[in-house]
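Hi everyone,

Forwarding the result from last night's run.
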Amino acid sequence: MPVYPLAQFKNLEKTKRILLRFDFSYYQLYESKFLEFIEALMAADKQVVVLVSGPEENVRAAIKVCKSKYADDYCQFACDEQPKFIDTVKMILTEPVARLCFLTGFDDYGPEKFLQVSFAHDLAKLGDLYVIDSLHLHGQLTSSVSLLPLLLPTYYGPNTAADWQALDDLRKSLFSKRSALVLGGQVDFTKMEALETILPKLDYLLMGTSWTSYFWNKKTRQMAHRETENFAKILKKFAAKVIYPLDFMAARYDAKTGRYDLRLAKAAEIENKDLLVDLGPETIRHYALLMKESDNIIYDNLLSPNTNEPGHADMILARAMANRARGKAFGIGLGRPLLDLLLKENLNEFMDMMVAEASAAYKFLINK
């Protein structure tokens, strides 16, 4: 996917209508810049249609501010306002106060979710150019909105542009500075290509429980896909950089009692029938020391994704990263579960960057 230029007002001079894509999932992180951008567009006498997605409470908070500030210029429509979406488009275009319009309901709207070209063409009628202002929307090819860059001149808004610059600086410094990637979350085939590109530039790849279960030689399994076979070969090629846990909180099913027995086990004690629940204390200390040595820390999702709540390792290592970020090192958190933890523990203010969709950050890092 291309990296679009930042939307400068010189790009907007000859345009009247702006189609703005914004995801409100983590609105509290971007609220001030979003409202400043809206204010600047309104001051420049532009017509703005905001394509809205994200949690309802966050959307309502943004709508409340915009509706009160631009009451005489505000309108709001849902994607399913009319049986045919083109009729909703016509209503927006003919609405007398439509200088700022929120178009809601994208998350559950069928034509958006199932990649309909006709829906994308109807959306494109709402703007002269398209601005994406949510970094984690970068590279998504599973919805009709992803076709808009093929139909309209496309730019990044101020939030995404600032994040892109930070990622660009990170990409340039991966090889020259000591860098660690903490690899959590479930095994994700879509990340493997990016990881194969990034791994040679890293100093440490710190493996979480799910990735360890799949690729660690103590938990051998038949590789079911060519992608996993190739990635396993890459891990072996750069084995000196790949750090597996030293101990675990492991669970083993007891058929007699019908329950799982939890125990702390050294790596050498783990068998295939063990479920890796969390990292053990020796591993947590080891990972924390390696993170302390690093100038770049990429923390991708929770290290123990199979538990209902963040595990002991994530609670400690998230703090270790926050302690290093914003000065001593560059710290970036990836993935919604990790972001939720950082926000809940008030660690987000110590982070250099947070991205809800890890795949979007990986696409940037490998120029895709």
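The two ends are 5 Å apart (CA to CA).

Cheers,
N.
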